[in-house]
Structures are given as structure tokens and as C-alpha cells.
Amino acid sequence: MASQTIVIPQKKNPQLEKAKLVAYNGEATDIVLMFNPTDITFSRKVDWESKPGNRSTTLLPKVNFAGLQPYMFTLKQLLFDTYETKESVMDYIKIIRQGVETIENKPDKRPPVYIFRWRTDYHYCVMTNLSYTLNMFLTDGTPVRALVDISLQQVDEPNSPGGNLSTPKGPNRPLDNKIK
Length: 180
Prior knowledge:
By secondary structure, the protein is mainly β. The protein is about 5% helix and about 40% strand. The longest helix is centred in the middle third of the chain and has 8 residues, at about 90-95.
């Protein structure tokens, strides 16, 4: 029996696809990661309700499905390094910090919504937590390296904060039912 060789086509000069957080509707500056994450942790919680004393014949509590929580995902230890260019890494950190600060020109004064993209779109999301550590400095004190952790929460695209469909419409809308 002859062995077969499997040939995997290789691109000529393959380009590195950088992960990024693309601001929804251009409401903030896109965050392009300097180096791609080594892993992404996804988690989702399912809510179940049980009533005290409501037990099955095996004495386990009876539970009822109560809903799904959105996916939470974390990008840990993202490296930003400007040592070779001698620029302050804070230029990158300022862009990332927009994700946990309110957008001044929005009427609902909220942080931006992003699309996490790395070759494909993963989720529409909002930042729920940001932490960064500056861990390398030039002799003049300029920070040139940072490790960044970003926690994100999935949001529904058409119902994202400030989206066109986030406000109830029609005759049952609270503003339309004023007492006359």
C-alpha cells in the first residue's frame, strides 16, 4: 500500500492578521492589538431558579430555566511595547481607556460598543473591566511596555446601547400612553 503525502497549500508571504476591537458606528478609536492574544477565555452563565422546599422524589431541588447571560470573554496579558521607537506606550493605553470612559458627544453618555474581530467577527461587545501594568521605562521615566487585561461582555448588535432598536416603539411605548 503506497503512502500518500498531503500537501497543504501555503500562502506566499502570509500577512499576520491582527486582532482588534472595532468601534461600532465609529463612536471611538479602533483598538488594534500590537501582538495577538495567546488565548481568549469565553464564559457564559445559565440562570436556573429553584423554590425552597420544592423538591423531587430524590430530594434534589426542582429547577426552572430562568434565562441566559451574555458571553463574557477576556483578553489577558496583551503586550504593548514601544521600546524600539522610544515612544510612550501611554499613546496606546489612552486609546484603550476610551473603552471604559463615556463618549462625550452621545446623549446617553455611555462607553462605546465594539466588534471584536480577528479574521472574523466574534461578538459585539462592551468593555466591563480594564487593567494595565506599566512594566518597562526609559531612563527619563517614559513608559515603553504595558501588559493589558480587557474583560468584554457580549451585546446584541441591533439592541446595543444607543442603537436604533433599543428604544421601544409603537402605541405601547410609555411616552405615548400619557394620561390626558
